[in-house]
Each structure stands twice: as structure tokens, then as C-alpha cells.
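Hey Z.,

So I finally got round to the S-adenosylmethionine thing we talked about over coffee. Here's the setup:
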Amino acid sequence: MWRQSVQRKCLSSSSLWALAVQIRSLHSSPCLLKKSRTSAEQRWLQRQLRDPYVKASHHNNFRCRSAFKLLEIDDQFRLLQPGHSVVDCGAAPGAWSQVAVQRVNSAGTDPELPRGTVVGIDLLHIPPLDGAHFLSCHDATDAATQARLLELLPAGRAHVILSDMAPNASGFRDLDHEKLVTMCLSLIDLAEKALLPGGALLCKYWDGALAHSLQARLCGMFGNVRSLKPDASRKDSAERYFLARVYREPAR
Ligand SMILES: C[S@@+](CC[C@H](N)C(=O)[O-])C[C@H]1O[C@@H](n2cnc3c(N)ncnc32)[C@H](O)[C@@H]1O
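And the result:
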């Protein structure tokens, strides 16, 4: 199962992007599946076509289906409030940022509500989005990026740090798990620099041996930590999220 999901991830991002664009016009072009494609591309395409979240993301103009994971979590826990400052790590192509912009009113859509801030960071290019400031081609774990981020946040602080970051999968489950946990640990460093007391960190991890120690680190800093698997997260994926709420700022 892990190998299958890695194989899917190993399709080049440019070919996946091209396929994703074609899926948007799929219903008007039923021959899409018949074009000459590798079997991995065929499998990926068929799974996308069957996926209700892919369909719903097209209807709602979300840049990808992952929007529904954040919507589901936010509907339950109300992390994103109008006026909040939000950091979105691993933001490309920008679906989580779309959700954050709506919920914190950072595009000023509702003039009656306070206007929030959304800053997204990704190694890749993130297409522009009204209400968000993007640091494209930046490594969110890098100290220089984190310093630049603080300059963009009001008073240098955030109410919420989101991370849907994931490294390129190597195919070695333990190695990939460790890499992602290391990235989560760098988010803990970022939280110590940027998070307001009472703030929240939502970060993706791939389940594995180090999950408990990551959870223990979070429990030392936050009043409430839980592990979540939203319905929109694929059942055959090791993906889960830690939601850590009520940040306790250490005495300085
Ligand atoms: C699953 S995608 C995120 C999808 C995004 N949440 C959305 O809704 O559009 C994971 C992203 O993490 C990014 N990423 C991986 N390592 C990163 C790093 N060190 N710094 C910033 N972004 C990173 C990848 O480039 C990729 O775009």
C-alpha cells in the first residue's frame, strides 16, 4: 500500500499538474483516459475521477482537494477567526490559503469584520491569491525564511500556524516518516518565535515510530494536543495531523 502511494507521488509534479488541469474539463472530453499514458498516470487519473472531493473542489473553485481537510478541521475546532494572522507552510498550489483567506477575512470581503493576514510559504511557485502574501520558492524550515515571515506578520506574531508540508517521498516509509517529523520539529521552532500565547499549530505528519515523541514535544508547549485523520484524507495514506491548541509561551 505504501509502495503504491509512493508510486503515485513519484509521478513528476509537472505531469500531475497537467493531468489535474485536464481533469477540470474531463466531462467534456471522455477520451481522456484513452490517451497514451503510463499505467501509474492511468491509475492516478482514475482515482481522481472517482474522488468526490476532487469534484467538489472544482465546483467550489478550490485549487485542490486538500481544502476539504482544512475546512473539516476548522468547522470542528474554529481555529480561523476573522482578523487572525495565519501562516500556511507548504502552501502550493494554495487551497489551504484559499480557505484561510475566506475564514480570516484577509481579502476584506466583509467590511464589517476585522481583516486578517495570511502568509503562505512553499518551495514551489504559488499562484497569486487576493488576500494572501506568498513566499514562493522559500524553504519554511530555513531560518532566513522564518525571519522574513516575521516581518510580514502584524507585530511579528501569528494566531495560527498551518502546515500541510510533505517532503518528496523516497519510497522508504521510515525515512520519509523521519523527514516529515524533522520538518514538524522545525515548525515547533517557528511556533516559539511567531505564535501568540493561546495560538494553535496544525501540522501534517506521516504516522510512524517517532509520532509519539513529536506529540510529547507538542504537549510540553500546548495545553491541548490531538491527532486527527479528516475524512478527506485518503484512507490508504499514512497522513495524519497533529492539532496543538492553546500555546503556552515559555517564560523569557
Ligand atoms: C500536499 S502539498 C500542500 C497542499 C496545500 N496545503 C494546498 O492546499 O494547496 C505539500 C507542499 O509542501 C511543500 N513543501 C515541502 N517541503 C517544504 C519546505 N521545506 N518548505 C516549504 N514548502 C515545502 C511542497 O512543495 C508541496 O507543495
